[in-house]
Amino acid sequence: MIKEAIATAATRxxxxxxxxxxxxxxxDADVKFEIIQDAQKKVLGLFxxxxxxxxxxxxxxxxxKAEPKKVESAPAKxxxxxxxxxxxxxxxxxxxxxxxxxxxxxxxxxIKGMGIEDIQITSHEEDEETVYExxxxxxxxxxxxxxxxxxxxxxxxxxxxxxxxxxxxxxVSLNVGDYREKRAESLKEFAARSAAQVLxxxxxxxxxxxxxxxxxxxxxxxxxxxxxxxxxxGYDSERRVIITLEExxxxxxxxxxxxxxxxxxxxxxRGxxxxxxAKPAYKPEVAADRxxxxxxxxxxxxxxxxxxxxxxxxx
Length: 315
What we know:
By secondary structure, the chain is of the alpha+beta class. The protein has six helices and nine strands, in the order E-H-E-E-H-E-E-H-H-E-H-E-H-E-E. The strands form three sheets. The chain has a three-stranded antiparallel sheet with strand order 1-3-2. Strands 4-5-6 form a three-stranded mixed sheet, covered by helices on one side.
């Protein structure tokens, strides 16, 4: 029987030595080698290149297999009925006290680094996340930022810290006062107004880029409004929601950007006076006693141009 081993290395010699070591053949064995793939250098030391691949093998004497002993089979036992095991209730994942303390300390360090010294942090558990409430007597605007951008940035950093330095798998969220609740209500009202425009005029409405939390609020609000649907486009920080009419739904007012077709009269030109008949061609007024103009040489300003002909050749 043939025993073999295959190895790869940067050079052919290294691959041969590795294949020989992996084969572990006896000293008296006639080991042979087969170069499956030779090594290739990289272009400019950066691109391409291949390792050498070598097969080492030798012929070993066939092993005599001992016949297996017959084992008397035991009498079959009566099947045991499987007992139903009650399903375990899912335990709510909560942050340990050590993890909670680490997140609070890290969050306090960030906020004080922003120049806000008066800060208190409380937390409560929700179904899918642990919410940390930031309480301060100073301006909330410094923590929230424009459209919540500062608060979202702090939340992103804290989540990275929690995923790397804590054993809990629960998501961490931040809130300042009742900002998240007010922002959610504002987004719901904005979604309703945008959906009303889509239903009225039939034109898609493209919203500004939003984070995943805010896009989720928009999508949820649109699902509750009949006749419109929503989807997201773009990537990363430029991802935004687009609200459109559902298939088969007609707008209530149509598209009036170009005046529409109001009874088939006027159309676009109707707003500009409509088609009130073509203007008559321009016709200059000529005095009745004016002499008729004669197109003769003398009447030209520069006179008539005579082309000089070459004299005819004698035959």
